[in-house]
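Dear colleague,

Following up on Tuesday's group meeting, I ran the structure prediction for the two-component complex that the binding team flagged. I've pasted the input sequences exactly as they went in, so you can double-check that nothing got truncated or mislabelled along the way. The structure tokens for the whole assembly follow below. Feel free to forward this to whoever is handling the docking comparison.

Inputs:
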Amino acid sequence: MSQITIPSSRPLLSDLWQRLVAFVAAPASPRPLAALRIGLAAVLFLQAASVLGSVDELYGSRGIVQRPIADAAVEPGVPRASWVVEALAPLGLTESASLRALFSVYLASLAGLLVGWHTRVMAAVAFLAHLMLKADSQLTVYGAYEFAHIALFYCLWFPVGGAWSLDRRAGRASGEPSADARLGLRLLQLHLCVVYFASGIEKATGMQWWNGEAVWRAVMRPDFGYFDFTWLAAVPWVAMLACWGTLVIEIGYALFVWPRRTRRAMALATVGLHVGIGVFLGLWAFAALMIALSVAAWLVPE
Amino acid sequence: MTRFFGLKATLALAHLALVVCGAARFLPAPRESRAARLVLMYGEYSGSNNGYGFFAPSVASPWDVRFSIYADGEGWVEGASPEGNNEVRLRFHTVLGSLSKDELREPVAASLAAKKFTSYPRAELINTHVRVLDLPTMEEYRAGQRPEWVTVNVYSFAHDPSVATAGE
């Protein structure tokens, strides 16, 4: 085994290097990544099950978005569900039957991922199926699907089956702390920092997020709102505080989630933000997924 | 740290760099170059090309369509909301949101009208009214102004008997 070393005659650089190595490679418990796997698979399974009755509408060539328009929305070369339809057509399967078959494979792979059965294979199947279904319905997918795609990609590479899994029970996966688990956890943590910082900064460039109009407009949209928020116009300071709170949480995430003293509070504040998004805007899948990511990244004890 | 782990860490760092580029909406190569095509394709597979400007810098107004349907000498108006649960409706409203893009408005309107033709095979003409919701500010709301749908475009689509419809 060859080691990477640097000359000891530069103690400051050596110290920094050792800290960096520890940051990305100190063995970590597989539990946080297992929590990512379980949270992700559970949310996606429920989300997929909820659209099972509308597969033709959402993914079919004559659905809500007709095939030529759907194809134009995706980069050429990205696998799509219509490839499966074309491949199965010579076997006599209709488009509807082929789409349902692919969707069934997707659901089954999510179930396998949830329980950690042949985890990496299940992750690969779920990732590919999700990619294909998403590609053929790109104009219908919103933020939850983009984050699902990112998280499934990470499940391909991270040791997400190392804990709370059938693989662990069967001895197919090691439950020992590992450098790979640390690297995966750091990548997830840093990615989330980029997400929230970018989101917060983009919001902060808009006046609506300073004068409260952003929250007002979001809850007044008929496609989101479950509740009557017209009373908010009479107390605009409430909307303003909600907007400022969102900015503080998102921009502050990357700063305050690292120190141990503020980590838990910051992570829980982010969870609270997403609970609000789920309850008041009806974006339950998006909220649940983001909560799963933050919990896995910061709140699961190693 | 082994060399193999060092390689993995380097790849992770490269991926994170692309995540940052995606968040900043920056393409780290000339657009028409082979490198740019590789970066874009990697982004499609990995999700590294995503931006994170949700409801940013402002919350957009919702879009909608209404259909004027003419069949067998009769005409009526109906909306576009599909049957289904919250998740299905969210997916549908995401499509409606794409009507805000000028280059997509007519193609998406045509797609939605085509779906309506499958529901009403005897329809001869469908006018698709594309609308956006004018949301008043909180101050305007206190002064009595209320949300109002504003028609932006009307597209007419006629049934072409020579083109097969779904199920035929």
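The first helix of chain A runs from residue 11 to 25.

Cheers,
M.
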